[in-house]
Amino acid sequence: MAKEKVVLAFSGGLDTSVCVRYLQMLHKVDVITLTVDCGQNEDFEAVQLKAKAIGALKHIYIDAREEFATKYVIPCIKANGLYQGKYPLATALARPLIATKATELAAKESATAIAHGCTGKGNDQIRFDVTIRALNPKLKIIAPIRDMNLTRDIEVKFAKEQNIPVSDEAKKYSIDLNLWGRAIEGGNIEDAYFEPPEDAFQFIKFNNTDVGYMEIEFNNGIPISVDGNQMQIRDLIHYVNNKAGYYGVGITDHIEDRVIGIKSREIYEAPAAICLLESHKDLEKLVLTKHELR
């Protein structure tokens, strides 16, 4: 008798890597891993090899960078999308897109469930669950990390026992990256008095004392040009990330409220998002009446 198939949203990080093995051992299912490229600039061949090495039945890669940029990031810019006035929603925007692709793949592969690596503490679990249930209420949702209330220490120990490789960075923090920003959480970050070390960041340069200027041009609320150079939105975001990050712009240190009622300290690195959203808000101040702004 054939095993049931489960589509797992797979990043190749600690959480989703141990999920493959937990799904196999505890749920006795075949796991199809899915990586959706939202601009995280990973070595996707290495991610595929890791999935296969852990035991995935099949690995699927989907390039969704253009869809993420045009259908998710641009509307966020137009809406001045900042959670609680600070977080530019990078991870939050990508989750419904990933869940949508997973639901479509489940239908194609005749899978009976979708799995994700979210914990029971954050908001990501809700973004995945609500999207999946809205698109196909018949699909089961399995979340091994949440279901077993696993800590990162337990996951690291389990990964070692199962010969699942874990990067040094993953042992310290939980990292999520896409075109619109980078989230850093877990480990020492949970201590509100702990200042994240420089090596926790990717875009930000800390020892640069230069001063720089950047000119951003908008058309109907969409950024189309930086420093006189017209670019597609994906290229424009990369340009602003690198330039603003070089000048030390783009860190958000945020105590945020999670949907389930707890508070969490989060560090976000999003130079392009911070610059483009601030510029768009200033543009609105220039062209809208006070009533429209309100």
Search tags:
single chain; 12 strands; about 290 residues
**What Rg, in angstroms, do the CA atoms define?**
20 Å
N-end to C-end Cα span: 61 Å
**Overall 3D form:** globular
Strand content: 15-25%
Tell me the total number of β-strands. 12
> Can you tell me the residue ranges where pLDDT is under 50 for at least 5 consecutive residues?
none
Strand order of the largest sheet: 3-2-1-4-5
What is the number of helical segments per DSSP (H or I, 4+ residues)?
Answer: 11
- Summarize the main sheet: 5 strands, parallel
What oligomeric state is this? single chain
Helix content: 40-55%
Order of helix and strand elements from N to C terminus: EHEHEHHEHEHHHEEEEEHEEHH
Query: Averaging pLDDT over every residue, what do you get?
Result: 95
Provide the structure class.
Answer: alpha/beta
Can you describe what's shown?
The chain is built from eleven helices and twelve strands. The relative contact order is 0.14. Helix content is 43%, strand content 20%. The protein is globular, with a radius of gyration of 20 Å. The protein is an alpha/beta fold and 294 residues long. Helix 1 links the parallel strand 1 (5-9) and strand 2. The strands form three sheets. The chain has a five-stranded parallel β-sheet with strand order 3-2-1-4-5, sandwiched between helices. It has a four-stranded antiparallel β-sheet with strand order 6-7-12-11. The chain has a three-stranded antiparallel β-sheet with strand order 8-9-10, covered by helices on one side. The longest helix is centred in the middle third of the chain and has 20 residues, at 90-109. It has helices spanning 14-27, 44-54, 65-78, 90-109, 124-135, 144-147, 152-161, 168-172, 233-246, 271-287, 290-293; strands at residues 5-9, 30-37, 58-63, 113-115, 140-142, 174-178, 181-185, 216-219, 222-226, 229-230, 251-257, 263-269.
